[in-house]
Structure formats: structure tokens, C-alpha cells
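Reopening this one. Same input as before:
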Amino acid sequence: MNTTIPFVARTDEDDRDTWLEALGTAMPSYRIKPFEELSEDDRAAARVAIVADPDPADLALLPNLEWVHSLWAGVERIVAELPVDGPKIVRLEDPQMAKTMAEAVLAWTLYLHRDMPLYRRQQEAREWKMHELPLPSQRNVGILGLGNLGRVAAGRLLEQEFNVCGWSRSGTRMEGVETFGGSEGLDRLLAKADIIVVLMPLTGETRGLLDASRLSGMKPGASLINFARGPIVDTRALLEQLDRGHLNHAVLDVFDREPLPHDSPLWSHPAVTVLPHISGPTNRTTASAIVARNIAAYFANGTIPDGVDRLRGY
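Same output, byte for byte:
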């Protein structure tokens, strides 16, 4: 088969070439070509494209495009930039990504559970002092977002015997997890949890969801982990709650602007741990295999995977 599949991405050359190699290995029957190398015939023939933060102007030059397969789980940017009547958007749903994210949630929950920020400050002050360690079952960990990532992360926390509660807009149920739904349910969970983990997608409804009011309504002394998207949390309000001591610590892997600007106060804040968006990286090998399987099914029988709900944003 000599079918050409466009690869449309705003990425540096090294990253592009690494993706092309991984995709080529997973899809040897197809020619995966970067957008800038497509001929006019290639552009006209394209029915599906593999994308990673694509330029919508490039996609507009593929006149017969039916759908795009994203290499990322987060699709808020492409949803915002592509016209509603544009190609169908299929996000990456990779079980390995959920496992990797769950590992990160567990690691940084343990970091907070065992007071690692406090011991770091003591090291800097050359202070030798031990503190009581509660049992995991005495910690309430609240997960905001009970989609695939949230459910797998909750499972890992339950294995470690943390007391897990979860919130979703619809009040999704999960065995072993106390679940909450709606606006009132969110307020109740925030008041209950010692550690909040944000894992929900960024949509019009979740943008700014953790605002000054909700952050002030969190349990005194609680900590926050944001592994979702920066704009879900009001950064200025978060710093205010950390400064006044209402909140204990924040582990932030995502930000309003990325990379985080050098002059951001988050870098040097003693109650903030800054991570460079590494909590749930895409695995090129497993992602490429999933893309290959979905595209092969499409050319075999016309099947397109379930796409993003443009109204919901994911």
C-alpha cells in the first residue's frame, strides 16, 4: 500500500523526525509525510491526518480531510482552533498514558503525604526534626475528574490504602471511592480532602473552576496537585492562599503559559513545586501502535473512532 498520511505538527525538527520514525515503524504499509513535503496530489488525496498541535492553516489546505488523529490526549487547543464544521477530531486514548499518569499521581501524593516539602525546608535550615506520619487511610485524597485517567489514578491510590474521593460534573460512580457531582458536590469535596488532584480536561466549564472562592473553601492545610491544565486553577488566588497559610503546598505540572516564564513567582515560591509538564507524557511506541490500528481500520472498512464532542470540548 502506498497511501500517504500527512503528519501535521507545530514541533521542532528533532521531535518531528522522532515521531516520523515511530509512526513509520508502526505503519510500514503507509507513507507518513510531514506537511511541508506533501505534493498537491498528496494534499488532495488526504482523508486522514496525524496531528500534534497542528496549524489550522495547514489543515485547511487538505480539502478532502475527513478526520484527524491527535497524538495527545488533551485536545482543547485544536478544538478551539478548528472550525466546528471541520474534520472530526479523534484524541489519543492510550492505556499506557493512564498508567503513567497514575504513577505520577501516586508519587506526588506520597511526596505530600510524607511531608517532603517540610523536610526539604528543614534540610535547607540544617534542622534535624522528625514529625508524626499519619496512615494513608487517614488522608483524604480528592480527584477532580473521573474519566479514564482519574479512575486509573484512583485505583492506584486505593491500592496504597488512601481514602479516595472523586468529583465529576455528572457524579460518576466508582467502587471504593466516595463520589460527588455538581457544584455543591465540588464544594463538599474541596472542604473534605487533604490533597486535591486535578485531572479534568480544560473546557469552557472547567476554565477557572478553582477560583478564589473555591480555593478559600478548601480544607485548611490542604495541598493541591494540578496535572490537568493550568487555566483550571486561578494562579493568583492560589498564591494568595499559599501565602496566608490556608493551603500547605502546590505541585504544579501545567501552567497558563508554557514554558513557564522566567519571571513567574511560582519558580521561587517556597510552597510550590514546579514540574515541566512531565506527569503524563505520550509514549511514542504505544501511541503509534494505537494510531496505526485506528487508521488501518479506517482504510479497511471506513471505521472512524469516536471523536471529540465539540460542545463538551473532549
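So the earlier flakiness isn't reproducible anymore. For the record, The mean pLDDT is 96.
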